Amino acid sequence: MFSFKNSPYIDRTLFKDRYGIDPVDQFPDAFNVLSHYKLVTIDDETQRITLTPKGRLCVEEICMQFAIPNLHDNTNTASRSERRKLDKHNFVPLYEIVQRPE
């Protein structure tokens, strides 16, 4: 997630070296949707997944596609503020569901 926010690309080789799997293989459904809507480009030659200009506009929402639901640091030694480290980086706005008029 942070690579998209800071780079704005994911180096597939670094990901594979770290986690032992290509991110495209790890998250095929997410990348299929993101590619379909032209929010990312997946380049096999450079081994990068890059945000498109349109993707940069909604990088927070894109990153949240990869968040693990209900992920918290529940270690006994962590203070309350330390347990919230994973939560505090979620700046994605929560939009209400808009009903279309009939």
What does this structure look like?
This protein is an alpha+beta fold and 102 residues long. 40% of the residues lie in helices and 11% in strands.
Strand order of the largest sheet: 1-3-2
Tell me the strand percentage band: 5-15%
CATH second-level architecture of the domain at 2-68:
Orthogonal Bundle
Low-confidence stretches: none
Order of helices and strands: HEHHHEEHHH
Number of helices: 7
**CATH class value of the domain at 2-68:** Mainly Alpha
In total, the number of strands is 3
The percent range for helix content is: 40-55%
Main beta sheet: 3 strands, antiparallel
Name the average pLDDT.
76
List the quaternary state of the chains: single chain
Instruction: Compute the separation of the termini in Å.
Output: 39 Å
Task: Show the helix and strand layout.
Elements: H1 2-6, E1 9-11, H2 12-19, H3 23-26, H4 28-36, E2 40-43, E3 48-51, H5 53-57, H6 59-64, H7 80-83
Antiparallel strand pairs: 1-3, 2-3
Task: Please tag this protein with its features.
102 residues, alpha+beta, Arc Repressor Mutant, subunit A, 3-stranded antiparallel β-sheet, 7 helices, globular
